[in-house]
Amino acid sequence: MQNKKGYILVLTILVIVALFFFGFLYVSLYRTESGSAQHLEDSLIALSAAEAGVDDAVYEFKRDKTWTAGFNNKILPNSGAGYTITFNKTQTAVPYSTNNAGGTSAVTGYGGRTVPVGAIHIVSVGVYSKGKRIDEAMITTGPASLFNHAIFVATTISLSGNATIDSWNSANGTYNQTKQLTGGDIGTNSGGSHIVTLSGNATVYGNAQIGPGGTPSSISTSGNSSISGNTTYSTSPVSVPVYEAPAGSSLGNRSYSGNTTTTLPPGQYDSLSASGNTTVYLSNGVYVFNNSVQFSGDSRLILQSGKATIYIKNNWDTSGNGIVNNTLNPSNLTIIGTSTSHTIRTSGNSLAYYGIYAPNADITLTGNSDLYGAIVGNSFTASGNASLHRDLSITANVGAGLSIITRW
């Protein structure tokens, strides 16, 4: 009987110890879970504060593009969270922002980010309780920043024959009056070998910018080809936003042949084709082409006066007599390739004054004539003896004010 009572006592003690252990374990786990949940909540609130800081900074830049006052732990109402933005690069306590809106060349910002001319890199630090988060944004201050090189691509550049890349300034006169053997800068967001290839007598009168991972072998020259300026290697890719076409109702297809001369009103069209000796005049305004644009033979697309912006959603081929801009100002004629535009072929001529901005398109300049303007694409090839003369004053007829092009 005594043994049985002793057994029950021992069992009771073990049960009490087990209950105490599991109770202690539960309390510990609860505290851990509660602490983790609280930390996650603090972190999310801090992130919201950092994002609010970016939005607040964008508002300030809309009022003044030179703004660099920043915010010092600006507290949000009700939540108690705050954010800090500083443009002071000499301090190390807070990640700094960079305003290159009025710059003349790209600069390196916080974290090795490349900040192009006309762009602002915002770094906002949000804090709440024990939570701390960072929100970054790259914003552009206007369309002028879209063309910072004679040629800029995501992948490869190929120049052959007697291709020449140089510069001039339409704000100061004609090409013959202002041409210079500098400023014909080229760039790519890619590294690796043979990203830029020059052959024959191809000459780049300017600098070359190679993307992350680039080495001297990224540039290949043969024959008498050369690059006159310096070669630099980016630590991070250059942000290149893609612009989509404005919405609208289609006016259908347009097809011309023979000796037709016609004026195409601004608007949205499914496709445009011309052959023979057709001349199609553009008017002042915006054009959108949902499908292909193709000019062959001696057909031409002409801007007589005013400004025209052309959005292309598909392929573009004007390798006949090409595009003519009689205003002689490249800023008056801009071709914008949307996210679905992948192939652009065009030919130069004595009046080919325009810019092509198509980040997703493989662009080919054909023939033996010249293009006066600038190009942004996925890749660029100049065949024959085609040359490109960068207009240092070119702007793109797309976008207005401030726009966020990348956010991290």
Write a structural description:
By secondary structure, the chain is an alpha/beta fold. The chain has 2 domains: 39-141; 147-398, no CATH class. Helices cover 16% and strands 38% of the residues. The strands form 4 sheets. It has a 22-stranded parallel beta sheet that branches. Strands 1, 2, 3, 6, 7 and 34 form a 6-stranded antiparallel beta sheet that branches. The protein has a 4-stranded parallel beta sheet with strand order 19-22-25-28, with no helix packed on it. It is elongated and about 115 Å long. The relative contact order is 0.12. The model has no long low-confidence stretch (mean pLDDT 87).
Give the amount of beta strand, in percent.
35-45%
Q: Report the major sheet.
A: 22 strands, parallel
Shape: elongated
Distance between the termini: 76 Å
Helix content: 10-25%
Taking all residues together, what is the mean pLDDT? 87
Number of strands: 34
Count of DSSP H/I helices: 2
Count of distinct structural domains = 2
Low-confidence stretches: none
Radius of gyration: 30 Å
Helix and strand content put the structural class at alpha/beta
From the structure above, extract its key features.
408 residues; alpha/beta; 6-stranded antiparallel sheet; 22-stranded parallel sheet; 2 domains
